[in-house]
Automatic annotation (TrEMBL):
This is Flagellar hook-basal body complex protein FliE. PANTHER family: FLAGELLAR HOOK-BASAL BODY COMPLEX PROTEIN FLIE, PTHR34653. It comes from the Bacteria. The keyword Membrane does not apply. Transmembrane segments: none annotated. The lineage of its organism: Bacteria, Bacillati, Bacillota, Bacilli, Bacillales. The keyword Lyase does not apply. GO terms for biological process: bacterial-type flagellum-dependent cell motility. Keywords: Bacterial flagellum, Cell projection, Cilium, Flagellum. It is found in: Bacterial flagellum basal body. Belongs to the FliE family. It holds the Pfam family FliE. Its main location: other. InterPro entries: FliE.
């Protein structure tokens, strides 16, 4: 078994190349957050539509797939709420810091 040395210079070069401005980072974060919330919203709307179709009897979907779709939507919503709570908690922690 041979051991190869780690070249730290390649890591520092990659780090310097990937440095972004603050505004770029904020825009990227905002885009990721907006896309994530959009996908959760789409899942909620499609699940609501599915519930309406099943309740009115217009859907031929079996109960098993219906319940899976409901649970997926529920997990997405709960995850979104947890992430929101963590972000708010982190913001409050930063605001409590002494300068």
């Amino acid at each position: 078994m041979t051991l190869n040395a780690v070249n730290l210079n390649t890591f520092s070069d990659a780090t310097n190349q990937s440095v972004k401005s603050v505004s770029q980072t904020q825009n990227d974060f905002a885009k990721v957050l907006k896309d994530a919330l959009g996908s959760v919203n789409d899942a909620q709307q499609s699940t609501n539509q599915l519930v309406s179709e099943v309740a009115s009897g217009n859907s031929d979907m079996d109960l098993h797939n219906f319940m899976i779709a409901m649970q997926k939507s529920n997990v997405l919503l709960k995850t979104t709420v947890q992430v929101r709570d963590r972000v708010v908690e982190a913001y409050q922690e930063v605001m409590r810091m002494q300068v």
